[in-house]
Model the fold of this input.
Amino acid sequence: MVSEQATSGLGNTRARARTLTVAYAGGEERRGPVTMGQANMIRCILRDEPALINIHDVWPAPAGTRLEAAVDALRALAVRHEALRTTFPHPPGSAPREQVVSAAGTFTVTVLDHDELPAEPARYAEALAREARHDRFHLDRDFPLRVSLVALGGAPVFVALAASHAVTDVSALAVLKEEWLALLSGEELPPLTAFTPLDLATEEATPTGLRKSAASLGHWERIIRTGPQAMFAEPGAEGTEVRAPQLTLRSRRGARALALVAERTGGLPQTVLLTAWCALLAHRTGQAACVAAVPTSNRYEPRLARSVNTLAQDALLTLDVRVPSFDVLLSKAWGAALNAYRHSRFDAVSLWEMIGRTTFERGSVFARDIVFNDVSTLPTALPSTLPSDRAPSATGPDLELGWGEEQVLPTRVLTFVHETDPLLRLGVWADPALFPREQAEGFLVGLVRLLEAAATGDVPLDALTEVTGVRPVERGPDWERVDGSWVSPPAVAEALSRALDGVPVHVHVTADPPRDGELPDGDAEAGLTAYIASGGAALTPAGAHAAFMEALPGRPGLLAPRRYVIVQDAPAEADRSGAWLRQQILSEGTGRDRRM
Done:
């Protein structure tokens, strides 16, 4: 079925638009519970704006592709993959718990036919795909791909699509792209061996699957209780979302150096790059450990590697950088990464309940500051996040940096690794308040320099400034390492006073015994004690803690005191801890005795 539409366009580009309704049949009808990954993404879909949670991709059509062939290949994918025939029926106001796979159905394809394409057609297709992300997918009825075919004189040039994150992730789109191209070349696709979403849901419900989920929660809780509450706890780090421009690195130098480091050390290139990235970020932030989310790494099991499904659950990596050299850090990195990958399947509701409980008890807010997404090993992955008219090739610049569009992100640094050979090709979004353009570019140049230095020999980690040109952040005298995190005690006092309607507050650092799971390294033993002059108002440690926790989001330099001491009035010397110690105590405690 074809319906004609009026001429439409994006910007100054004009096209004749028509909509094809494509019918498919031949699949198997099934139903069952949602997977943990689906539940995780559905939670985000119901909460976030669609432009932030929908994903997109651009597929270049081979020369000579006919419109009918392109559409037939899309139809074949719908029949082949249960995820594309899946909806999530649910009553209004509730989250879906069940998925239904249809045997037959329809979807639409918008054909945008041009007499002349723009000067940069790939960027035009990318813009179309991004624009399609702004409309919400209806989980109970919509086909999960929103497809536009960019054509020139009736011949497809690109597929620009937005996708529902409830059934696809970046890896799934890469598989679909590879299979679409294979179908257009006349290849016969092999039988499916990867898990379908319903297969995975069944495995997750087994005793083994439930044990894995429980172990994952334990892994996350240990990191959230003892690691830095935020990698970027420093001046300028504010808010929970940032608008960051894209910075792209393309470098033959980086690829050559990466290969030489891998050859010299025996490490995998992906592990070498992850190690270098973590080392440099921990150096830049002045942290003792690098804590990063590595989402695509949970496809390390063979049955999941090519699954068309959403497996977008973070593997949470923590890598202690308190070692003498790069080679020593690399020797630890694979084990740390594997431990993260093994603990990347969990019930999202239980995870966030644990995070809420743990952060309340610690007095922190978990910040997903760093996301490292290595998609370089995905099949034929020309990423949607890196629009380019150039396919990967042996030719390329020694080192090229390019700026692209801005994107709103709930993280400080988002990195996509698109290619490691023959080019090192990265897409990075960094908070401009922390990384002005010159510093962002210097960071990526520093990464290449680190790889080049490690290609010829081991690199002492205390020489990273000299080797890379990247300097640690300067925090100033008011900042201290407390409970494994960088904290500004004066800022804590100011925030607590404001949360309690302006009563005088004094905060100082104390040495408390380490809690379970903490390293007895001095940093972990330090805690905060808050003295609060209530002026006779009814105030308890529990009330003070609850009020402070309300002020925490978006301020990573704050950490709740371990102890609250309520006194009547502030001493004359309100800036001296000793003076507060001599005041009569009305009440004191941790404030964690109950949730408010």
Q: What stands out?
A: Residues 90 and 225 are 36 Å apart (CA to CA).
